[in-house]
Amino acid sequence: MNTPGSPAVGMVCTGVRAEERMLAEAFAARNVELHVIDDRTIHGDLSSWPAGFPRVDAVLLRSKGHWRNVAIAHWLESLGAQPVNASRVLETCGDKVLTTLALLGAGVPTLSASIAFSQESGALAAEGVGYPLVVKPVIGSWGRLIGKVNDADALDLALDHKEALGGAPHSVTYLQRFVPTGGRDIRSFVVHDRCIAAIARTSAGWKTNTALGGKATGLTLDPELKRVSEAAAAAVGSGAVAVDVFETDEGYLVNEVNGTMEFRNSVATTGVDIPGFVADFVLEQFAQRAAVAR
Ligand SMILES: Nc1ncnc2c1ncn2[C@@H]1O[C@H](COP(=O)(O)OP(=O)(O)O)[C@@H](O)[C@H]1O
Ligand SMILES: [Mg+2]
Q1: Atom of ligand 1 at shortest distance to CA of 214?
Q2: Where exactly are the structural domains of the chain?
Q3: Are 11 and 28 in contact (CB under 8 A)?
Q4: Less crowded by CB within 10 Å, the N or C end of the chain?
């Protein structure tokens, strides 16, 4: 049952994973009616409200896949809705070039990256970055197709593979210097401009993604980590985001910002109710809009 005056919330997702289950529990605990909308059921003309989509007051977007999230966000925004996260945030976070540009533009300590658009220019860009380097698809997650390249021969193969794989994510070559992290980095969580929690991720290999077996342990927030994380979130447009941070001799360096954050391993390890913060953020946004409309 909805509490009088509380909104109906929609959560768009591609099947219900652990995060969506935890979010559903958070809304239930707040007596808020949650409509879980599988994005595979959504369709319709772009000039009108999507078919198969209840008339909710607030929407949380958690589709798997960058373009799907971005398309739904823009569609809903064109009809006056304000999804969490907003299209700008999803667009920026889902694309590593846009993320790097946003972080650099806002003066957030980050790694920077070099980009190129052919095998030849990729080789030239790599000379500027130096070896070892890391090559990444511009769009992608979970550490997929991210490779450490130790020399020009290996780069040649990586660029060959990108060309053979084809498609938009591989049409831009994105290169970064390799940071010797020892298989450890930080994932911090920022909701509504506030860094609420962080974990350290450790792995036997150099990629720390928990999807690849990286282990999460709770981390105490320090003021600098909070500052850098909140600045990174603000740079991509704010919202509910997870920030990947490297600990380096130069201090914290932001690697990327995730717009559809995964936190299944971060609630028990930090003791912070991350889905509760997200639910409260969605409800606060609705309350603010409702107050403006009155
Ligand atoms: N430049 C780098 N130097 C060292 N390790 C890196 C670098 N870039 C990424 N990694 C490692 O690879 C993982 C995946 O890279 P990331 O940029 O976060 O892409 P994804 O979107 O797939 O998570 C990171 O969490 C980190 O452990
Ligand atoms: Mg990452």
Answers
A1: 27
A2: 9-86, 93-109+181-274, 114-177
A3: no
A4: C
Please report, as a single letter, which amino acid is at residue 77. Answer: E
Expressed in angstroms and rounded, the spacing between residue 158 Cα and the centre of ligand 2 is: 20
Task: Supply 149's token pair.
Answer: 């390249």
User: Does the predicted model carry a pTM greater than 0.85?
Assistant: yes
3-state secondary structure of 116: strand
Residue with CA closest to ligand 1 atom 10: 207
Protein residue with least CA distance to atom 4, ligand 1: 179
- Binding site membership of 134 for ligand 1 (Cβ less than 6 Å): yes
**CATH class of the 9-86 domain in this structure:** alpha beta
pLDDT tens per residue, range 239-267: 999 999 999 999 999 999 999 999 999 99
Q: Characterise 244 by phi-psi region: left (phi > 0), alpha (psi -120 to 50), beta (else).
A: beta
Position 1 pLDDT exceeds 50: no
Is the minimum distance from the CB of 95 to ligand 1 under 6 angstroms? no
How is residue 84 written in tokens? 């969490």
